[in-house]
Write a structure and sequence with these properties.
By secondary structure, the chain is α+β, with helices and mostly antiparallel strands. It contains six helices and five strands; from the N terminus they run H-E-E-H-H-E-E-H-E-H-H. It is globular, with a radius of gyration of 16 Å.
Length: about 190
């Protein structure tokens, strides 16, 4: 049921996001050197590795670490990167990952390939058995403001209570948070 929901919603959203994709793609090409899409190496279900699509918001020479671990991440942002991140527009290409099956609309956000502390804690609670999501319970309850242990506890709550109605609640709250930039620090 969840997979069917993901495919249906993805296909419904594609016509709506095409104008945004075109505008953002042109803006990225005009304002910075490098590819339009950044393929971030991430950990998926069961610890598998996949490449998650995002609009590129950082310069091509940026170190591959979580931005919350960088003290000077702003110096690596492209001219429109800050806006794309604050508005979460940089996440739109993940619709491809959802259609492909690497991701779902709702689940724990996929860990970076080098976030071993997060992966290990998720393993402890079985959270890595979930398909990673574009959004999740932790994202709407703190996102960048959460410690790893807080994030995993929220993901555990999702794991214990997952279902289509809970997913719809999370998606609705995500839309509200996105328009208010709630919980987004970079």
């Amino acid at each position: 049921m969840k997979r069917l929901f993901d495919i249906t919603l993805s296909l419904a959203l594609i016509p709506l996001v095409v104008p945004v994709v075109i505008a953002v793609s042109i803006s990225i090409k005009v304002t910075s050197k490098g590819p339009i899409i950044y393929w971030s190496k991430r950990k998926g279900r069961g610890g598998t590795t996949f490449h998650m699509a995002k609009f590129r918001t950082m310069q091509v020479d940026t170190p591959q670490v979580a931005t919350h671990l960088m003290t000077d991440y702003a110096e690596y942002l492209t001219p429109i990167g800050g806006f794309l991140r604050k508005s979460s527009i940089d996440e739109i290409p993940q619709i491809w990952n959802i259609l492909y099956g690497d991701m779902s609309f709702v689940g724990p956000r996929p860990a970076l390939f080098n976030q071993d502390d997060l992966v290990l804690l998720r393993d402890k609670y079985g959270i890595n058995e979930l398909v990673p999501g574009l959004t999740g319970w932790a994202q709407i309850n703190g996102r960048d403001e959460l410690s790893i242990s807080q994030k995993v506890q929220l993901e555990r709550h999702y794991f214990d209570n997952k279902g289509i109605l809970f997913d719809i609640k999370i998606i609705c709250k995500t839309v509200i948070n996105t328009f208010s930039s709630h919980g987004i620090s970079h």
